Automatic annotation (TrEMBL):
GO terms for molecular function: kynureninase activity. Its EC number is 3.7.1.3. It is an enzyme of class 3 (hydrolase). It comes from Billgrantia sulfidoxydans. Its cofactor is pyridoxal 5'-phosphate. The keyword ATP-binding does not apply. Belongs to the kynureninase family. The keyword Hydrolase applies. Pathway: Cofactor biosynthesis; NAD(+) biosynthesis; quinolinate from L-kynurenine: step 2/3; Amino-acid degradation; L-kynurenine degradation; L-alanine and anthranilate from L-kynurenine: step 1/1. This is Kynureninase. Keywords: Hydrolase, Pyridine nucleotide biosynthesis, Pyridoxal phosphate.
Length: 418
């Protein structure tokens, strides 16, 4: 039996994470199901940025000695418990894109070309494949793609140096068995770099328990660090200090202010720094990570899965008749998002109606996103979503579909970012 409004309000009263919602500054009336693209704003983040502006005004360059300079390592240590990592193993820096390049170079440095192949997976978020391609082109490696859905095993031969994989797939939301795959890759003599973009802050991640040596991830999605917030990378302690990473910038130098002619990598995780970071961006992220220290990750996972089930159950019976299929994997194999694929009603030339459906929802205050071809994505960020929000979002979607509201011409206009 579908839950009633009273039922979901009762679930909210019993929710141990309910108080976090008031610590986010969401627009009035918005139901935000796009935290898997850009997380909502913690109230404390706006305060922290304002304080940083005042510090810049008053302290000028002294700010660098007042916490700005060591922020990449300090925030890395804040992030570590959310990833099952130890202090000194995580650095907040640059973007996933840059960090992938650094790690591919670091892993393969000094190997000669005994293992000349870098693997990436077809259908993954494009930057992972693009960086593998670029790295191979400039580094003299061979790039091979594991087709989407193919068994990795068949591609892991003695020529493979490294493979880049997503922990949770950005389109399907499918969660991989990180421990088993890491064991498999290591047993073949290769390294794996995990992309945690859709798992950090979405579910408990335990890099140490899974035997992971290298990972990257972003902080602007579930971790609420803000638009373009700095990314992170993880290098297990015993894998540090092995050589160089290829973006050998001055702040990754052992003595950056000695201005020496030649590069010498800093000890530990700091060598993965590149150039000057933005204290403004770090201030917003630090405020969010401070909030995250209070979050019980088991409760987060439990609520994320209950919200997903509530959404799907509230839509049951209404998707088929509109040519929509629910591609969300089963609970043990998914992250924190729901994927609904809209069929093109047999016409491959016509624009997919999924885009217009998402636009019609946005007009009603329910914010999700759309990815070609035909995928409507809804992210469930348990810190600022109530059960009632999710119940109402499903009601809006049912109404948009049943009334054909999305067919209105204004929903067909496309912006640059979908
Ligand atoms: C799986 C995955 N990797 C990487 C990125 C982008 O990384 P970057 O921080 O370099 O923009 C995204 C962005 O959505 C993503 O979903």
């Amino acid at each position: 039996m579908p839950l009633t409004l009273d039922d979901v309000r009762e679930l909210d009263r019993q929710d141990p994470l309910a108080t976090f919602k008031s610590r986010f500054a969401l627009p009035e009336g918005a139901i935000y199901l796009d935290g898997n693209s850009l997380g909502a704003q913690p109230v404390a983040a706006a305060e922290a940025v304002e304080a940083l502006m005042a510090q810049w005004r008053d302290s000028l360059i002294q700010g660098w000695n007042q916490g700005w300079f060591d922020a990449p390592e300090r925030l890395g240590d804040r992030l570590a418990p959310l990833l099952g990592a130890a202090p000194g193993e995580v650095l907040v820096s640059d973007t996933i894109t840059h960090n992938l390049y650094k790690l591919l170079g670091y892993i393969t440095e000094g190997q000669g070309r005994a293992r000349p192949v870098i693997l990436s997976e077809g259908g993954n978020f494009p930057t992972d494949g693009y960086i593998a391609q670029g790295f191979c082109r400039f580094g003299g490696f061979e790039h091979r793609v594991v087709p989407e859905g193919a068994a990795l095993e068949a591609y892991l031969d003695e020529r493979v140096a490294a493979v880049v994989l997503s922990h949770v797939h950005y389109r399907t939301g499918r969660l991989r068995d990180m421990a088993a795959i890491t064991r498999q890759v290591h047993a073949s003599g290769a390294e794996v770099v995990w992309d945690l973009a859709h798992s950090a802050g979405a579910l408990p991640v335990n890099l140490a328990a899974c035997g992971v040596r290298y990972a990257v991830g972003c902080t602007y999605k579930y971790l609420n660090g803000g638009p373009g917030a700095p990314a992170f990378l993880y290098v297990r302690r015993d894998c540090q200090n092995r050589g160089w990473q290829p973006l050998s910038g001055w702040l990754g130098h052992a003595a950056p202010f000695a201005f020496e002619a030649d590069y010498a990598p800093a000890p530990g995780i700091s060598q993965f720094r590149t150039g000057t970071h933005s204290p403004l961006a770090f201030a917003a992220l630090e405020a969010s990570l401070t909030l995250w220290q209070e979050v019980d990750l088991a409760a987060l996972r439990h609520k994320s899965q209950r919200l997903i089930e509530l959404f799907r159950e509230s839509l049951s019976g209404c998707l088929d008749e509109h040519g929509i299929s629910d591609i969300t994997p089963p609970e043990a194999q998914r992250g924190s998002q729901v994927g609904l694929v809209v069929s093109n009603h047999g016409s491959s030339n016509a624009p997919n109606p999924g885009y217009a459906i998402v636009q019609a929802l946005i007009e009603r205050g329910v914010i999700g996103d759309y990815r070609e071809p035909g995928l409507m994505r809804f992210g469930f960020a348990p810190l600022y979503l109530s059960h009632e929000d999710v119940w109402q979002a499903a009601r809006h979607l049912r109404e948009v579909l049943s009334a054909g509201e999305y067919l209105a011409p204004r929903f067909q206009q496309r912006g640059a970012v979908t």
